[in-house]
Amino acid sequence: QVQLVESGGGLVQAGGSLRLSCEASENTSKFNAIGWYRQAPEKQRELVAVITGGLNNNYADFVKGRFTISIDNTKNTVYLQMNRLKPEDTAVYYCIAKEWTGRDGFRDYWGQGTQVIVST
Q1: Which regions in the chain score pLDDT beneath 50?
Q2: Cα separation of 34 and 20, whole Å?
Q3: What's the pLDDT at 36?
């Protein structure tokens, strides 16, 4: 069973920066996609940024130009650099990894989440 462990969340003032890390228990190069979702209170979980095929970075419109996703396969870790944070970025951030299993389709693995709070 793949385990994903996030870290790096915390409290930051608006305009500040945080870097989230997600360390996988297995080689990250095996995943078809790996990235970040977030969920704010009373809202649905939403995609923030994802790396697909190990090469393509995709971002939600609301973070383009502010957040950067990257991966270090030698450390089995994916990062989310968050700059110019806004109060509306406050949420629990979850790491996700998708693995193609063949006949059973994709299997999703989720981390436990890390809280980000952006104060005004």
Answers
A1: none
A2: 14
A3: 98
Q: Which two tokens stand for residue 25?
A: 């228990």
* Cα-Cα-Cα-Cα dihedral sign, residues 86, 89, 91, 93: negative
67 within 8 A of 49, measured Cβ to Cβ: yes
> Residue 56: which of 28, 34, 77, 74 has the closest Cα?
34
- Tell which residue, 97, 120, 113, 96, has the closest CA to residue 40: 113
Contact between residue 49 and residue 110 where contact means Cβ atoms under 8 Å apart: no
> Any idea what the Cα angle at residue 58 is, between residues 10 and 17, rounded to 5°?
25
Residue type, 42: E
